[in-house]
Amino acid sequence: MRDGSYTQSGSKVTVTNAGYNATSAAYGGSVTFGFLGRRDNGANPAPKQFTLNGSPCANEPTY
């Protein structure tokens, strides 16, 4: 991972910032988050939800 770290417990994955990138500019700042995942031979079900700081993301994932 490049700008953070992650932990996983079962199907739940939590990503934490790297410290130096914990905040963005107060006005006009933006943050972009992305990840790459994989499903091994279809054995893992597709994600059902995504949240950011405990709030559901507005956009539905595209597969």
What does this structure look like?
- By secondary structure, the protein is an all-beta fold.
- It is built from no helices and four strands.
- A two-stranded antiparallel ribbon has the order 1-2. Strands 3-4 form a two-stranded antiparallel ribbon.
- A hairpin with a 2-residue loop joins strand 3 and strand 4.
- It is elongated, with a radius of gyration of 14 Å.
Which secondary structure elements does this structure contain, and how are they paired or packed?
Elements: E1 4-9, E2 12-17, E3 51-52, E4 55-56
Antiparallel strand pairs: 1-2, 3-4
Terminus-to-terminus distance: 22 Å
Radius of gyration (CA) equals 14 Å
Structural class: mainly beta
Q: Strand-residue fraction?
A: 25-35%
The side-by-side strand order for the widest beta sheet comes to 1-2
Main β-sheet, in a few words? 2 strands, antiparallel
- Write down the overall mean pLDDT: 76
The helix/strand series, from N terminus to C terminus, equals: EEEE
Report the count of strand segments. Answer: 4
The total count of helices amounts to: 0
- Given as residue ranges, the uncertain stretches (5+ residues, pLDDT < 50) are none
Q: State the helicity in percent bands.
A: under 10%
The coarse silhouette is elongated
Features:
63 residues; mainly beta; two-stranded antiparallel ribbon; 4 strands; elongated
